[in-house]
Design goal:
Layout: H1 11-21, E1 68-70, E2 76-83, E3 90-97, E4 100-102, H2 113-116, H3 130-136, H4 155-158, E5 161-165, E6 168-171, H5 175-190, H6 194-197, H7 215-239, H8 246-265, H9 271-279, H10 285-306, H11 313-322, H12 324-329, E7 338-347, H13 360-379, H14 384-394, E8 406-410, H15 417-423, E9 433-438, E10 441-454, H16 455-477, E11 482-484
Antiparallel strand pairs: 1-4, 2-3, 5-6, 5-11, 7-8, 7-10, 9-10
Helix pairs in contact: 1-5, 5-7, 7-10, 7-16, 8-9, 8-10, 10-16, 11-16
């Protein structure tokens, strides 16, 4: 399912955290945060225009005011695909979508005549020194903390109930998985901007998320919301006799083997030690495996219901009309141009001048190679299959070599300008071919087909289905009596050891 579009670690532990954080959906960025970068991300095909937050062009660090910051709003629980904490097993996460905006820079104090030349203050009225101020300074955070030391996790504490949903209960033994999953998902979403939003090296209970809650309280709250959704959906699935797919069951069957292999590759002795490094000392492999099982069950059941949601063209258009202002503000305006499927063979010039640009001779040779490949294809069967075979053998684009040079559902503005202009020429027809030069080289082009819908329509349709799925999820959760006792929560700060 898709989310609504309206809306540095020490090297020793970096890979472990990345495995816990990595999201697997093809595009998790929000149009709200999109910006056309001057340079492409490492894993993005060079000639594709991407939407990603970038550092300033002058190489300076962005200021906190420029970094994305969370917007206070009611959190929404969405079903989303994500990578497992283990490297070799793919799981499905229910995660919390937090829309964000940019935090404005603090206003400079206004200088007045009085502030320019303050009157002398009597000695007995002088402000307190820094040392004196520190003695009476208010503690960080809001005075509420659920952090405990590992030795405090006795059997009695671990058995304490933190939340319940219907006949299901969440204790302190399972709580860390839900809690830390929220943090890792959030950290992955913001990437390098995380340090401008919160300090991972400091206690999350010592930093405010908004005027009322600390980051620890926010992650705990959304972790409980995740639990409520999973627990309700699992109970509903069980009551309907719904069972896991063969694919999900096979992944569960392989989980212990895969997790153990990953643990050993990172120097941990077994799966338990690996899981505890990420989620805390009380979490056992069995707890993690049960979390994965419930995650699969809840997700597959909800998805089975979501597949039955009717979605007509009129539903999509009505949804756009209801939220047009929000979509427009996020940069999504109506454009009925259909997406296209196109193949290409990229030939990159192989010599550069002292200034780093390709030499004229290199450009000429690249053009000659491109023309030779096009002539070879035309002299042969000149079919799409023939073009695909030629692309697989000769293209220098790693992003499409395995697909015979194919890019599917290309939308206006996705590719660099010359490539884009060729694809969306008003006279373009299926079977067209040609050669296009971009800054990255020469592209031998083949126009495969028009898609049945536009990028704009696809985005609105996905948003409509996401909203309908969330409403469906809320309806199911509302059937169960859910409660929470936050004061029973006990969380070990697993991040602190990573920064020592």
């Amino acid at each position: 399912m898709t989310e609504s579009i309206r809306g540095q670690h020490p090297q020793e532990d970096e890979d472990v955290l990345l495995a816990a954080q990595a999201a697997s959906e093809p595009d998790t960025s929000d149009p709200d945060d999109a910006a056309e970068p001057e340079e492409q991300e490492e894993n993005t095909t060079a000639f594709q225009q991407t939407s990603a937050e970038e550092a300033p062009a002058d190489g300076s660090e962005p200021s906190p005011a420029e970094a994305p910051a969370p917007k206070k709003r009611s959190a929404s629980v969405w079903i989303a695909a994500a990578a497992a904490v283990v490297l070799l097993a793919v799981i499905v996460l229910l995660t919390v979508k937090i829309l964000r905006d940019r935090k404005p820079a603090p206003a400079e104090p206004v200088q007045t005549a009085e502030t320019h030349a303050p009157a002398e203050t009597p000695a007995d009225e002088q402000p307190a020194s820094d040392a004196q101020t520190a003695e009476v300074a208010q503690p960080a955070g809001n005075g509420v903390s659920y952090t405990v030391e590992p030795e405090a996790l006795t059997d009695e504490v671990l058995a304490q109930r933190v939340a319940s949903c219907g006949s299901d209960a969440l204790t302190n033994r399972e709580l860390p998985i839900y809690y830390w999953q929220q943090y890792y998902t959030f950290a992955n979403t913001y990437g390098s901007y995380l340090a401008y939003i919160l300090d991972p090296a400091a206690g999350l209970d010592q930093q405010m998320f908004d005027a009322e809650s600390t980051w620890q309280q926010m992650f705990l709250r959304t972790g409980v919301q995740m639990y409520d959704a999973m627990a309700a959906l699992c109970q509903e699935a069980d009551s309907k006799g719904f069972t896991l797919s063969d694919t999900a069951q096979a992944q569960l069957d392989d989980l212990k083997t895969d997790l153990t292999a990953s643990a050993m590759s990172y120097g941990y002795k077994d799966a338990d030690e690996y899981v505890q490094k990420i989620y805390g000392p009380s979490v056992r492999y069995e707890d993690y495996a049960e979390f994965i099982r419930r995650n699969f069950l809840a997700t597959e059941y909800l998805n089975s219901l979501a597949e039955q949601i009717p979605c007509t063209e009129q539903d999509v258009l009505d949804h756009y009309a209801r939220h047009e202002e929000e979509f427009t503000a996020s940069g999504l305006t109506r454009d009925d141009t259909p997406m296209v499927n196109v193949r290409h063979i990229l030939i990159i010039p192989d010599e550069t001048a002292e200034d780093g640009t390709y030499t004229d001779a290199a450009w000429q040779e690249a053009e000659r190679q491109a023309q030779a490949l096009l002539d070879e294809w035309l002299a042969g069967d000149s079919t799409e299959e023939g073009f695909a075979a030629l692309a697989a053998a000769h293209t220098e684009d790693p992003g499409s070599a395995q697909t015979g040079g194919l890019y599917e559902e290309v939308y206006p503005g996705q590719m660099v300008q010359p490539f884009n202009d060729w694809c969306f020429d008003a006279a373009r027809a299926e079977g067209d071919y040609g050669i296009v030069r971009t800054d990255y080289g020469y592209h031998v082009m083949y126009f495969s087909s028009f898609c049945p819908t536009s990028y704009w329509y696809r985005q609105i349709e996905q948003d409509y289905l996401s909203e309908a799925t969330y409403t469906l999820e809320e309806t199911i959760v509302a059937r169960y009596d859910c409660g929470v006792t936050y004061e029973n929560a006990a969380i070990v700060d697993v991040l602190s050891s990573m920064y020592q």
